[in-house]
Every structure is written in C-alpha cells, then in structure tokens.
C-alpha cells in the first residue's frame, strides 16, 4: 500500500521531503508532481524501479527515460553538452522541457536508447520537485505518469493513490500540476529536433 503525503506547494515540509528521499534511496518508486504533470520516479540505479515503471506504463526498451535534475551542474554529469547546445538549454531551464542528449558513462546502460546511446534530461520549475531533488542529492529517474490506453496523464494525488496503491510506494500530493507533458527536444544530432510539443514553448527551437 502506497504512503500518501500531503505537501504544501510553496513551502514543502522538510521532514516529509526528507522521509520521501530516504525511501527513494532505499528503492522506493514514487509518484511526484512537476511543472508539467505527475511523474513516476525512482533512484537512478534501481533495476526494480525501472522494471516497475516499464510495467505500469507498458513501455518497450526504446522508451527514453528522463533524468530529472536539480540544476545544470548535476545535469552536466550525465550528458554531453557542447557550447551552442548549452546556451540553448540554459535559456529554457528550469522549465517544462525534456532534452535528449548523448549520455555519459555515468548513465546506467539499461536507461539508454539501445541504438542512439542517448537519454532524456530536464530541470523542473516546481518547488516540491526541486525540494525533493535537493534533499536526494542526485537525479530522479523518471517517466510521465501516463497509463496505457489513456490520452492524458493523471493529475490528482488522491486518484493516483487509489489507482496505483499496490504498484507504487509513495504519492506526493501538492495540488494540481497540469495535464500537459513536457516539450521534448532532441539535440543528439546537434540541431534541435522537436519530438513532442507539450507544455514548453517550442518557438525558440523552431
């Protein structure tokens, strides 16, 4: 049964966030809010967490997982970013964007796109997500909480608790966080390619 945490959207309770971070370090899979919509998140090296996300969302091995990072210093440990791409991404973060980039050796192989050796990264503009990332001290391996055969991600913490009670370990509820997933920009070829139009404005990349 999943633990349910009611967290203040502007002043998240430190003790609660610390407890959730400890759970993640111990292998927990959590549903948490971001600046676009809810996401499923686990520790970077958690094979069990990866398997459970794939099972919940019915994903194949070509799916791009996302490393949700606290800041650029953290992001730079896991992807290769040249100067031009750095400036483009810097101008758009934090925000509702996911960027696909060549991965460094710090990224576990099972997270990489099997052919491209790329991974998605993002820096959210959300107080609770940022508080959790700061407490955790490492990225969250994440995927949008979009269930198979559904058109929109889940948006209500209580509903997530009801529907996923036996497949996730914790749900963080800080109120509505929208239904639109991130805009996805693929920079793995050097030039920006818009893969998905979502919550982030695409005009800067067109």
TrEMBL record:
Coiled-coil intervals, chain numbering: none
Identify the Pfam families for this entry. Answer: Sua5_yciO_yrdC
The YrdC-like domain sits at 14-200
Q: Which domain of life is it from?
A: Bacteria
InterPro entries referenced in this protein's UniProt entry, alphabetically: DHBP_synth_RibB-like_a/b_dom (IPR017945), Sua5-like_dom (IPR006070), SUA5_domain (IPR052532)
By what name is this protein known?
Answer: Threonylcarbamoyl-AMP synthase
* Originating species: Streptomyces gelaticus
């Amino acid at each position: 049964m999943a633990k349910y945490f009611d967290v203040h959207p502007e002043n998240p309770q430190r003790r609660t966030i610390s407890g959730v971070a400890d759970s993640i370090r111990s292998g927990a899979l959590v549903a948490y809010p971001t600046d676009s919509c809810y996401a499923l998140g686990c520790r970077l090296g958690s094979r069990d967490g990866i398997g459970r996300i794939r099972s919940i969302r019915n994903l194949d091995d070509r799916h791009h997982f996302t490393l949700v990072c606290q800041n650029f210093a953290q992001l730079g440990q896991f992807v290769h970013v040249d100067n031009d791409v750095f400036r483009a991404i810097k101008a758009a973060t934090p925000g509702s964007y996911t960027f696909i980039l060549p991965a460094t050796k710090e990224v576990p192989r099972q997270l990489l796109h099997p052919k491209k050796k790329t991974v998605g990264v993002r820096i959210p503009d959300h107080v609770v997500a940022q508080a959790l990332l700061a407490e955790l001290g490492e990225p969250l391996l994440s995927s949008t909480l979009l269930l198979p055969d559904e058109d929109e991600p889940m948006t209500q913490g209580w509903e997530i608790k009801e529907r996923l009670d036996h497949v996730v370990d914790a749900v963080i509820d800080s109120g509505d966080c929208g239904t639109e997933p991130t805009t996805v920009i693929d920079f793995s070829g050097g030039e920006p390619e818009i893969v998905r139009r979502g919550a982030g404005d695409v005009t800067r990349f067109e």
